[in-house]
Amino acid sequence: MNNIFKALNDATRREILEMLKERDMTAGEIAEQFSISKPSISHHLDILKRADLVYSEKKGQFVYYSINTSIVEDLLQWVINLKSSKS
């Protein structure tokens, strides 16, 4: 769970997740949307992968990234349970 919160603590990573919510994208396509270096985007993607927030899949010569909706659902359920335990 700590990896998830660490990953979500950064605005760039949250923006990447918003983009992946719309469609699967390559690292290059993601990098085109930011004014930071490609290695920095790769670092952000690695953190998101370690937190299980994104998947990567090689298709031909490209690696496509997609959002892992099941981990997002688990996180939301955890937050809901946290709130309901206070009632």
Automatic annotation (TrEMBL):
<dbReference type="InterPro" id="IPR001845">
    <property type="entry name" value="HTH_ArsR_DNA-bd_dom"/>
</dbReference>
<dbReference type="InterPro" id="IPR036388">
    <property type="entry name" value="WH-like_DNA-bd_sf"/>
</dbReference>
<protein>
    <submittedName>
        <fullName>Sporulation delaying system autorepressor SdpR</fullName>
    </submittedName>
</protein>
<feature type="domain" description="HTH arsR-type">
    <location>
        <begin position="1"/>
        <end position="87"/>
    </location>
</feature>
<dbReference type="InterPro" id="IPR047796">
    <property type="entry name" value="SdpR-like_repress"/>
</dbReference>
<dbReference type="InterPro" id="IPR036390">
    <property type="entry name" value="WH_DNA-bd_sf"/>
</dbReference>
<keyword id="KW-0804">Transcription</keyword>
<keyword id="KW-0805">Transcription regulation</keyword>
<dbReference type="Pfam" id="PF01022">
    <property type="entry name" value="HTH_5"/>
</dbReference>
<dbReference type="InterPro" id="IPR011991">
    <property type="entry name" value="ArsR-like_HTH"/>
</dbReference>
<dbReference type="InterPro" id="IPR051081">
    <property type="entry name" value="HTH_MetalResp_TranReg"/>
</dbReference>
<keyword id="KW-0238">DNA-binding</keyword>
